[in-house]
Amino acid sequence: MKESSWRIVIGALAMIIGIIAGICIQSSVMIEIDNKIRYSELLNWITAIIIGIWVGYILKNKFENSKVIKNYLLDDIKGISIDVSLLKVYCYNLKPKNILTEEERKEIMAKLNIIDKKILIFSNMLLNCYPKEYQRMQDTLNGAFISFNRKVTGDEFYEKNIANTYFDNIVTESAMFEICLRKLNIIIIKEL
Amino acid sequence: MLTNNFIKNTMDIKYRINVAKDFSAYPAGRYKSEGDTSGEAFLLDNLIGNLFAAIISNTSLEIDLTGMNGYPSSFISGSFGKITNELGKVIGIKEASKAIKKHIVLKCDDSAVRKQAVMDEIDNPITKTK
Q: Which SS3 state, helix, strand or coil, does residue A116 take?
């Protein structure tokens, strides 16, 4: 049997033993009804109600809102990751050629633009919802994209005899970008 | 959205360039030989004159990067990097980037990265000879 299954069985047994022990103790003690109102008990009730409202309404809502925002941020990162991957594949498929046509350059620029806009959407949401974490995460993301953009649209982008290393470097840089995106994913899941 | 390497510019803005409207929304390449929308063309036709005028009058030049369709690194390097490099040959790269950043205000409403890319280039210009 798995360790987790054993834990469930032990937990259930402990609960049953607890219930039986509770019944035994209760039956051995005579129940008396005290009609006096004690202010300490009233305070106890009010405190319990306030804590109940705080946990059930405020804390739960806050947690659920945070979950929704995190899901949006994670989806944004996922979208960026997919677009980076698509651009990498598009560029790598051009490797057999040694010059890019105007149309191919436009296509690459358009794909980079889409990534840029997705970063903008992510950044705005991050700034609005987690302003304290914004700068650190934004610097990481910006750095990765600038570096990727530099590799893709560097001087070789316009050269007439593009070396194979240009395409290989794009693959390497896209992997670095992907590493950065996964780091951001971890920060969103664990730290926000 | 300011990052650490941005100097808060308090000077009056006297000169303005909107890259997409005044130059091209499709910047491309480093040298003029690569096209009329290259970094070198932007440097010579728009940037150098306005920046020098801002420095002489002790005011700021606002460069609006909104509306550009991409920002090829060769374009940024051929314009912002080139001017830092050339000035750096006389007063040193560090001083040159400091002086340029003192008189430039970057604006961009449609990208979270573009301003940073330009600032990075001014801080660490990529040198390339023809």
A: helix
Q: Is the pLDDT of residue A45 over 60?
A: yes
Enter the ipTM.
0.83
Nearest-neighbour CA in chain B from A38: distance (Å): 58
A117 touching B (Cβ < 8 Å): yes
Within a domain: residue A183?
yes
A150 touches chain B (CB under 8 A): yes
Whether B111 sits inside 8 A of A146 (CB atoms) is no
- The total of structural domains in chain A comes to 1
For residue A89, the one-letter residue type is V
Interface contact A158-B30, CB threshold 8 A? yes
B129 reaches A (C-beta below 8 A):
no
Mean pLDDT, rounded, for A92-108: 90
- For a pLDDT cut of 90, what percent of chain B falls above it? 73
A155-170 average pLDDT score:
89
Q: Kindly state whether residue A73 falls inside one of the protein's structural domains.
A: yes
Which pLDDT belongs to residue B78? 93
Task: List Cβ neighbours of A76 (8 Å cut-off, separation of 6 or more).
Answer: A118, A121, A122, A125
C-alpha to C-alpha distance for B122 and B113, rounded to whole angstroms: 15
Q: Does A27 map to a domain?
A: no
Which residues of A are less than 8 Å from B113 in CB distance?
116, 119, 141-142, 145-146, 149
- Which of B30, B74, B116 is nearest residue A142 as measured by Cβ atoms? B116
Q: What is the arithmetic mean of pLDDT over B17-22?
A: 94
Domain that holds residue A82: 69-190
CATH of the domain at A166: 1.20.120
